[in-house]
């Protein structure tokens, strides 16, 4: 027996000097939630909370950036009017979060928060940020992380539903470049990602055009140019099968 673990009767048990990493993380998460709840209960001005989160979102510590992005997501969900008031600052922070060079957690939380914002405002608040968000989200569709890939498909589908006239040409070009990813992930190893991809494929179908390298096999099919559109919208998984087997 280790001599350091021996104790005489009546001697108090030794106190652990460190907590397991997983437990420490849970404690940090717990106190973060408690702090947020107490702030709301004390009716601390949301403006102050917002600027605290904005400052933390630029912190050198990745964990603090992650928690800040999550906090912005909570604000977007619970107090959308406040987020709308500072939308340019919020969107700028989230776009920087999308391009975080270190933390996949920060990127993922930024994607999720943007999804909340688009859901609250029907995509009418992105302005010129639409370009940066679309470009980076498109690259995340093939990410190795299942959760991030799933969230990216959800966000890309929302972007497709919220395209304004100003960005229609731009988004159409992005969808064309994304078509292979959309087809591939219809058969994603993760069922939830495959389901999200199918929904996004349908949202993107108005921006898809028949690709020149694909040609219908029969004259009857050539006389039916709507076939591609019907398949892409109603049965994208069938369209993927036809392409994969070179039937189309």
TrEMBL record:
GO cellular component term of the entry, any: cytoplasm
Domain of life where this protein originates: Eukaryota
Domain Maestro/Maestro-like HEAT-repeats: 53-225
Pfam families per record: HEAT_MROH2B_C
Disordered: annotated segments: 1-20
PANTHER family linked: MAESTRO, MAESTRO-RELATED HEAT DOMAIN-CONTAINING
Designated name of the protein: Maestro
Organism: Suricata suricatta (Meerkat)
Gene: MRO
């Amino acid at each position: 027996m280790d001599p350091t673990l021996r104790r005489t009767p009546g001697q108090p048990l030794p106190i652990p000097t460190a907590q397991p990493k997983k437990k420490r993380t849970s404690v940090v998460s717990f106190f973060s939630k408690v702090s947020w709840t107490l702030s709301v209960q004390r009716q601390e001005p949301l403006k102050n909370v917002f600027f605290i989160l904005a400052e933390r979102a630029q912190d050198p510590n990745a964990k603090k950036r992650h928690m800040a992005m999550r906090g912005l997501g909570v604000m977007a969900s619970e107090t959308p009017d406040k987020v709308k008031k500072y939308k340019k600052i919020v969107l700028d922070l989230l776009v920087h979060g999308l391009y975080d060079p270190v933390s996949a957690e920060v990127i993922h939380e930024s994607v999720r928060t943007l999804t909340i914002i688009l859901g609250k405002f029907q995509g009418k608040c992105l302005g010129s940020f639409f370009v940066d968000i679309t470009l980076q989200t498109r690259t995340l569709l093939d990410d190795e992380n299942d959760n991030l890939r799933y969230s990216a498909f959800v966000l890309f589908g929302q972007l497709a539903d919220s395209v304004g006239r100003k960005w229609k040409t731009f988004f159409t070009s992005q969808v064309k470049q994304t078509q292979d990813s959309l087809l591939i992930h219809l058969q994603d190893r993760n069922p939830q990602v495959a389901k999200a991809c199918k929904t996004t494929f349908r949202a993107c179908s108005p921006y898809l055009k028949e690709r020149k390298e694909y040609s219908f096999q029969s004259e009857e099919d050539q006389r039916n140019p709507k076939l591609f559109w019907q398949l892409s919208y109603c049965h994208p998984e069938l369209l993927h099968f036809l392409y994969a087997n070179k039937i189309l």
